[in-house]
Design brief:
Elements lengths: L1 H17 L3 H24 L3 H6 L7 H9 L8 H9 L3 H9 L21 H19 L7 H9 L7 H17 L1 H4 L2 H12 L2
Helix pairs in contact: 2-4, 2-7, 4-6, 8-9, 9-11
The structure holds zinc ion (ZN).
The site of zinc ion has 6 residues, from loops.
């Protein structure tokens, strides 16, 4: 009895102190797993299963998990986006992009000769898998092959990104909008595009 009383007290204080509920924690945990599973499947398709297994593992660390769980809302959009709208920044995102090479933001160094270099091919592959898995996770059955391109057009001018990476991502989304994932997300084809866009 005492045990349950203590647990309930802890849950109540957690809800008050950290604006966290069991429902949000569990809901966020499920969405992270669902997203990671979709990424893993796509990563296998393009020949990087190991990266697919480790993809986004930092989301389970307290620094990322608790903040994103706090802004979780039914899993229809990114809690990081919500957090930034409310507080102006997201510690979870700052930590995430500094520890995950599949984000082009990871490679950004304002003090380097090329502040936003091209990301290596294997991380470009993971980025592509990540963006499609995220779109499918948040959109659910409303997701269409045109979705990623329209999303990309809304966000592409907001970050610092190498112009060639930008053009390359846009090319992939344009092709998928036309031909679908199965045809475009193939390692050989993506390598050809990567080489075409990265050559001097
Ligand atoms: Zn990530």
């Amino acid at each position: 009895m005492l045990f349950f009383y203590v647990i309930m007290k802890m849950v109540k204080s957690m809800e008050k102190e950290y604006k966290l509920t069991i429902k949000k924690l569990w809901g966020h945990f499920k969405v992270v797993n669902k997203h990671r599973w979709k990424v893993f499947c796509l990563c296998c398709k393009v020949g990087i299963p190991w990266q697919g297994i480790w993809h986004d593992w930092t989301k389970y660390l307290p620094v990322e998990f608790f903040e994103t769980a706090r802004y979780f809302d039914e899993g229809k959009y990114s809690p990081i986006r919500k957090c930034k709208e409310v507080t102006g920044y997201s510690i979870a995102w700052i930590h995430h992009k500094n520890h995950n090479k599949h984000h082009y933001e990871y490679w950004h160094d304002y003090n380097a000769p090329t502040p936003a270099p091209m990301m290596p091919f294997k991380y470009f592959l993971e980025l592509i898998c990540d963006s499609y898995a995220a779109g499918m996770t948040y959109q659910g059955k409303n997701w269409t092959k045109e979705y990623q391109l329209s999303y990309w057009n809304r966000v592409k001018d907001k970050g610092v990104i190498h112009p060639k990476t930008k053009a390359l991502i846009e090319r992939v989304h344009t092709e998928v909008a036309k031909d679908g994932i199965n045809k475009v997300l193939k390692r050989k084809h993506l390598k050809e595009l990567y080489d075409e866009y990265t050559k001097e």
